[in-house]
Amino acid sequence: MVSIKASVMVITLLTVCLLATNASPGCCRNYMKTKIPFLKIKGYSVQTVTGLCPISAIIFHTKKGKACTDPALNWVMYYVDRLRNKAQMVHMKSTQAGI
């Protein structure tokens, strides 16, 4: 009969192994190589370097999923600025409508 201690140790070891191999499923580990057409982008999020995520990235969200991009690239930050401006325009229109 297997002891409770041995069972707990095996379960703990399996859990650690699973966490190590799939640390963060939403985490970018490398950058895409091609430029995305701006019209395909629905939004973005920012990833910073952490223990689980090895790179900083701008994650563009599209209908097909996410695209991990390098924030050091000019086109990436240009897209971020365009998205911010678009959001600011929506905000301004909604506050004016409420007046």
UniProtKB/TrEMBL annotation:
CDD domains named among the record's database cross-references: Chemokine
Pfam families xref list: IL8
Alphabetical list of InterPro entries matching this protein: Chemokine_b/g/d, Chemokine_CC_CS, Chemokine_IL8-like_dom, Interleukin_8-like_sf
Subcellular location: Secreted
Keywords, in A-Z order: Chemotaxis, Cytokine, Disulfide bond, Secreted, Signal
Start and end residues of each Chemokine interleukin-8-like domain: 24-83
Cellular component GO terms, alphabetical: extracellular space
GO BP annotation list: immune response
Signal peptide extent: 1-23
Molecular function per GO: chemokine activity
Family, per entry: Belongs to the intercrine beta (chemokine CC) family.
Protein name per Swiss-Prot or TrEMBL: C-C motif chemokine
Organism: Gymnodraco acuticeps
Lineage: Eukaryota, Metazoa, Chordata, Craniata, Vertebrata
